[in-house]
Amino acid sequence: MSKSLILILGFFALSGIFLSQNALAQNCNSQNITVNNFFFTDENGNPFPPGFEPPNYDPQNPPTIQGKIFATF
Fold first, then answer.
1. Which of 49, 41, 31, 47 is nearest to 66 (CA)?
2. pLDDT tens digit sequence for 50-70
3. Is there a single domain that holds both residue 73 and residue 43?
4. How far apart are CA 11 and CA 31, in angstroms?
5. pTM (2 decimals)?
6. Separation CA 26–CA 13 (nearest Å)
7. pLDDT digits (tens, 9 = 90+) for 3-41
8. Pair 23, 42 in one domain
9. Domain range spanning residue 73?
């Protein structure tokens, strides 16, 4: 085989490898999402006010607060 034919075949082989890797990356199911907004509510669905702190809040022993987190995507 001539050197130019080997060079051309090598080029096509490498091109196929790189193109197939790019195609596989586009089918990756990473499930990345963007959260546009979120808010917290108490157990009854009432939003907590901005800067909410529970009564008798102690940062050394924080209480468990029952509630829900909502987000828009």
1. 41
2. 888 888 888 898 888 888 988
3. yes
4. 34
5. 0.43
6. 20
7. 555 655 555 565 665 555 544 555 666 677 788 888 888
8. no
9. 33-73
